[in-house]
Amino acid sequence: MKIIDIVGARPQFIKLASILKEIVKDNRIKEVLVHTGQHYDYEMSGLFFDELGLKQPDYHLGVGSGSHGYQTSEMIKKIEEVLIKEKPDLVMVYGDTNSTLAGALTAAKLHIKVAHVEAGLRSFNKKMPEEINRILTDHVSDLLFCPTDTSVRNLKNEGINKGVYLVGDVMYDSVIDYIELAEKRSFILEELSLSSKSYALATIHRAENTEDKIRLFNILKGLESISQQILPVIFPVHPRTMNKIKEHEIEIRYINLIKPVSYLDMLILEKNAKIIFTDSGGVQKEAFFFKIPCITLRDETEWIETVETGWNKLVGSDTDLIFKAVINIAPGLENTWTYGDGYASKKIVDLLIMKGL
Fold it and tell me: What is the C-alpha separation between 137 and 95, in angstroms, rounded?
């Protein structure tokens, strides 16, 4: 059986890592890796492949940045060439990026089966490009690997019942696989002169926050106040976010801006933070895995379990709520778990083999 994995953005590399570990254990699967180039600089892409021990992509499409229409259409054209050449039995896509949608649509048009890892997530906000990507990808997929009961219910509510499997969260697999390595290899706390629970960690990258000058200003204003008055805020800055900060002429004086960090460094920063501020779905989950209070800089989240258990709070771009979040830190429920047993990747690969495709 030949499968093609299509990835293009940093969170997808993390999801891919644990699945590839399982694939290489079985010689019945031939795997071809396609990197669309959606994240194309070394810090956001190459560093992750090196650090996670991932094989280099068999195809690097080099699409780069651009509008959603341009980026997705360029991916479709280039992915189609690869699929026609390789003739896979299955294309596997991950998460909710433009790479996800492009891979799924191209395969479906060529009558190649599609598997979607992290299927069924919904924020119910169609203004988010990620939400459109999720919905369309799920509706053309043949195998839908769901991380939670909620994601299975979401699919059922949309009439998708066939090929749906509750496997757990592959990102939890990766945290289990790599946290021990991170604790041995990462010296990020020492490099930044930080001690455990002495800082807040922030990440901002979604278009709803970076494209809107007022939202971005309000978020950064709240983080500035925290960093100035309560505890330092460490902010690994996504390249697009930095460009928008400059474009919007937002002055930052007190937040500790650092370059994007590796996956291992990020795990250590997350595990040792006192509180995390983010608009990233992956970081929300990783905060939950480490039981670190998380404040989500969005008005909704697809990871509703983290909110329901009290470990995550939605504040949008409200400056006052962002500031008060640090003062009112409270732990969530201890005896609640919804993200599987750490064997999601093995279950996915076992299902692929069982299906035989």
Answer: 9
Q: Is 205 considered catalytic here?
A: yes
User: What is the tens place of the pLDDT at every residue in 151-193?
Assistant: 999 999 999 999 999 999 999 999 999 999 999 999 999 999 9
Q: Tell me if domain 2-169+340-355 and domain 180-327 are identical in fold.
A: yes
The residues, any chain, with a CB within 8 Å of residue 347's CB and separated by 6 or more, are 145, 165, 167, 168
Q: Which residues contact 243 (CB under 8 A, 6 or more apart)?
A: none
Contacts 24+ apart (CB under 8 A), 126-129: 127/208, 128/206, 128/208, 129/68, 129/98, 129/207
Q: Whole-model pTM above 0.90?
A: yes
Q: Residue 45: its pLDDT value, please?
A: 60
Point out the catalytic residue in the list 68, 205, 238, 248. Answer: 205
Sort residue 66 into left (φ over 0), alpha (ψ -120 to 50) or beta: left
Buried b vs exposed e over 205-216: b needs ≥16 C-beta within 10 Å?
bbebbbeeeebb
How far apart (Å, rounded) are the C-alpha atoms in residues 66 and 235?
24
Please state the domain extents for the chain: 2-169+340-355, 180-327
Rounded to whole angstroms, the Cα distance separating 279 from 275 reads 14
Q: What is the three-class DSSP state of 7?
A: strand
pLDDT at 305 over 80: yes
What is the reported pLDDT for 42?
A: 47
CATH 3.40.50.2000 applies to domain 2-169+340-355: yes
CA–CA separation, 193 and 176 (whole Å): 26
Instruction: Report, at the CATH architecture level, how domain 180-327 is classified.
Output: 3-Layer(aba) Sandwich (3.40)
